[in-house]
Design brief:
By secondary structure, this protein is of the alpha/beta class. It has one domain: 3-Layer(aba) Sandwich (Rossmann fold), CATH 3.40.50. Helices cover about 45% and strands about 20% of the residues. Helix 2 crosses helix 8. It starts with a helix and ends with a strand. About 45% of the residues are buried.
C-alpha cells in the first residue's frame, strides 16, 4: 500500500513538472500578441539570421529542421531557399504557432514545408537525416540546453550543420540610457530564471557546443541598433508579454509594469535616442564525420 501511494504521489508530481522544451516553460506564452512580438523579433534579427544560414552553405535540396520555430518566419524562408527538392520541418510546442506556420506554408505553396506540434527535447524526427538543424531564441528558455543541443546534433547528418542563435540580456545599450529599459531587463532576467531558463545563455553557447562534441565552431555576435524602428519597439512588446508572469511571481506591481511599458513606448517614439537590441550570439558548427 505504501509503494502504491508513493507511485501515485510521484505520478502527480510528474504531471505538475514543466515539460522541458514545452510551451509551459515559455514565459512569454502562446497568443496572437506573442505571435506579433515574434514577428517584430524577426524584423530585428531576421536579416542577420538569414545571412548566417547562407554562410553555413545552405543550398537547394537541403533537408532542414527548425526547433522552436514559432510562426515559421525562418522555416518558411528556408523552404524558399531549399526549393521543392529540399524539405523543411518546423517543430514547436505551441499549437497556435504551428497552425500559423502551416497556414503560411499553404498560402505560399510550400508543400515541402511541414510543421509539427511537439516538444523540442523529443521531436518526432529521424536521427542523422538533416543537412541543417537550427534554433533561435529557444535554448535560453529551457532548463537543460545542452540536452537539447545534443538532440539537435543527433538529428544532423555526419558533417551536417548545427546553428543556434540565442540572446544575451546582459548587453545592449541606450544613449542616453533609459531607466525603464534597464528595469525591464532586470525583470526579464529574473522571470526567465524563475521559469528554468537562462537569460545570459548567449555567452555560454560556445562552451555548450564544445561539450556537445561539435567541430568547426564559428561564433558571431550581432546587436542591431535603432534607427531600425523594431529594435526599440521590441522592448515594450516583450514586457507586455511578461506582465502576467511578473505579477504572478510578485516581482512587480500592475501599476509599475504599465508605467514601464508606457515609458518604453515613449522611448521607441523618441527619435533623439539611440537604442540597441540585446546581443544575439550566433554559433554554427558541424557534426563530426
Amino acid at each position: 500500500m505504501v509503494s502504491s501511494a508513493n507511485s501515485l504521489l510521484e505520478e502527480r508530481r510528474a504531471r505538475q513538472r514543466p515539460v522541458i522544451g514545452s510551451s509551459k516553460t515559455y514565459v512569454l506564452g502562446e497568443s496572437d500578441a506573442e505571435a506579433e512580438r515574434l514577428r517584430v523579433l524577426d524584423e530585428v534579427y531576421g536579416k542577420t539570421s538569414r545571412a548566417l544560414l547562407q554562410r553555413v552553405g545552405l543550398r537547394t535540396g537541403w533537408r532542414c529542421a527548425d526547433l522552436g520555430c514559432g510562426p515559421g518566419h525562418i522555416a518558411l524562408w528556408l523552404a524558399e531557399q531549399v526549393g521543392a527538392t529540399g524539405h523543411v520541418t518546423g517543430v514547436d510546442r505551441a499549437e497556435l504557432f504551428v497552425n500559423l506556420a502551416r497556414s503560411s506554408a499553404h498560402q505560399r505553396g510550400f508543400h515541402h514545408a511541414h510543421f509539427t506540434e511537439a516538444d523540442a527535447i523529443a521531436p518526432p524526427l529521424t536521427d542523422a537525416t538533416f543537412d541543417l538543424v537550427y534554433s533561435r531564441c529557444l535554448l535560453s528558455h529551457l532548463p537543460d540546453p545542452l540536452l537539447v543541443l545534443r538532440r539537435m546534433t543527433a538529428l544532423a547528418k555526419p558533417r551536417g550543420a548545427i546553428v543556434v542563435e540565442d540572446i544575451d540580456c546582459g548587453g545592449g545599450f541606450a544613449q542616453p540610457e533609459s531607466p525603464a529599459r534597464m528595469r525591464h531587463l532586470e525583470m526579464y532576467q529574473a522571470i526567465v530564471r524563475r521559469h528554468g531558463g537562462d537569460p545570459l545563455l548567449g555567452r555560454k553557447l560556445p562552451r555548450l557546443f564544445r561539450a556537445a562534441g561539435l567541430t568547426e565552431i564559428h561564433i558571431e555576435i550581432v546587436t542591431p541598433v535603432e534607427p531600425v524602428a523594431a529594435v526599440k519597439r521590441l522592448y515594450p512588446l516583450t514586457l507586455a508579454r511578461l506582465k502576467p508572469a511578473l505579477l504572478k511571481a510578485g516581482l512587480a506591481t500592475d501599476a509599475e509594469v504599465d508605467a514601464l511599458i508606457a515609458d518604453l513606448h515613449a522611448l521607441a517614439d523618441d527619435s533623439s535616442k539611440t537604442v540597441s537590441s540585446c546581443p544575439l550570439v550566433q554559433v554554427s558548427a558541424r557534426r563530426p564525420a
